[in-house]
Amino acid sequence: MTEEQLLDSFHLMAPSREDQPILWNAISTYSSMRAREITDLKKWKEPCQRELYKVLERLAAAQQKAGDEIYKFYLPNCNKNGFYHSKQCETSLDGEAGLCWCVYPWSGKKIPGSLETRGDPNCHQYFNVQN
């Protein structure tokens, strides 16, 4: 699955009201980024940060639509250098564990043959180097 397919396929569904803080924290982060004028994606060289900004922008827009409520979505899990953590998971506000999968840290692309599972997909197995 490409990054664009992943972005295009994250699900927007209905949550309960008590689950809103997680989503609002994400939207607040996005609003804070916009307030600091961190909106030029060309300034964001790291792939995970660029994707995160795009997803936050879509979440904020979806939340502003009348009647649109979100209970399952994907936020890229970025490291401090702006690249992807090898384990990525969807966020679920309905109490159900979201699906997790393994990606290449430099691109965010799913590792071929890695499983999608609710829980730990054991991503470190793809990066163990044996001498």
Overall average residue pLDDT? 73
The best one-word shape is flat
Helix percent reads 25-40%
Given as residue ranges, the uncertain stretches (5+ residues, pLDDT < 50) are: 1-22
> What order do the helices and strands follow?
HHHEEEE
CATH class: Few Secondary Structures
Spatial ordering of strands, largest sheet: 1-2-3-4
The CATH superfamily bears the name Thyroglobulin type-1
Radius of gyration (CA) equals 15 Å
Task: Provide tags for this entry.
131 residues, alpha+beta, Invariant Chain, Chain I, four-stranded antiparallel β-sheet, 3 helices, 4 strands, flat, disordered N terminus
How would you portray this structure in words?
- The chain is an alpha+beta fold and 131 residues long.
- The protein has a single domain (3-126), classed as Thyroglobulin type-1 (Invariant Chain, Chain I).
- 31% of the residues lie in helices and 11% in strands.
- The chain has helices spanning 3-9, 20-35, 47-64; strands at 72-74, 87-92, 99-102, 117-118.
- Strands 1-2-3-4 form a four-stranded antiparallel sheet, with no helix packed on it.
- Strand 2 (87-92) and strand 3 (99-102) form a beta hairpin.
- Residues 1-22 have low confidence and may be disordered.
- Residues 45-123 form the Thyroglobulin type-1 domain.
- This is Insulin-like growth factor binding protein 1, isoform CRA_b.
- Pfam families: Thyroglobulin_1.
- It is found in: Secreted.
